[in-house]
Amino acid sequence: MAHQNWENIILQKDFPCHFGTIAEKMGHLRYSYIENNDISGLPNTLREFLTLSRTFTHCRHALVVFFEPELQSKSFEYYQDFFWKIIQFLHEHDDKEWIEEDFPTNPDDPNWEFVFDGDPIFISANMPAYKQRITRNFGQCLILIFQPRRIFSDISHTSKQGKKAIHLIRSKVEAIEHLPIHPDLGGFGDPSKREWKQYVITDDYTSRDGQCPFHYTRRRK
């Protein structure tokens, strides 16, 4: 049911991200389903996915994780807190060291990205609590999308192709949501933006304030 609902939405011709639609049609997306919010197996699932992604670098692979719907309606804050607990859990169960010289560990660095198994990954949270930012609402499931940073290498916000793609996606989002593009969204490395704020954007037009809930933990030798 969760995947069918996802497929019905992502294959619509007005779905904002045409890259996602193409990936679905070409079979480049991988899926996982979590019951009872039991994330104990997620680190291994993500690790296996990244191995696959590194093997087929010509594909825009992404991992889509569906969470079993909550029995009762939950608030935006609930899902937001749960998201960061998941990210922290993944970090604490990562078998590989996060090399600070390769990837910044401070979320306030514009070049920061969450790293797992040695790979920087962009993660977006999609949840039923989104009432205004409806392009991030796929029904009753919390859905996390893990996208290795490398799949964006040829469509960066500084390239001609990337600028065109971003403009097209944002135009579609505005048409669907009837809201201006969220102020926290921007290109990777933009000194005025922060990646972590784009993982879970607010459900309105306000920028996320405060510090990132994620805490880097140096692995003991």
UniProtKB/TrEMBL annotation:
It holds the Pfam family YqcI_YcgG. It comes from the Bacteria. This is YqcI/YcgG family protein. It comes from Heyndrickxia ginsengihumi.
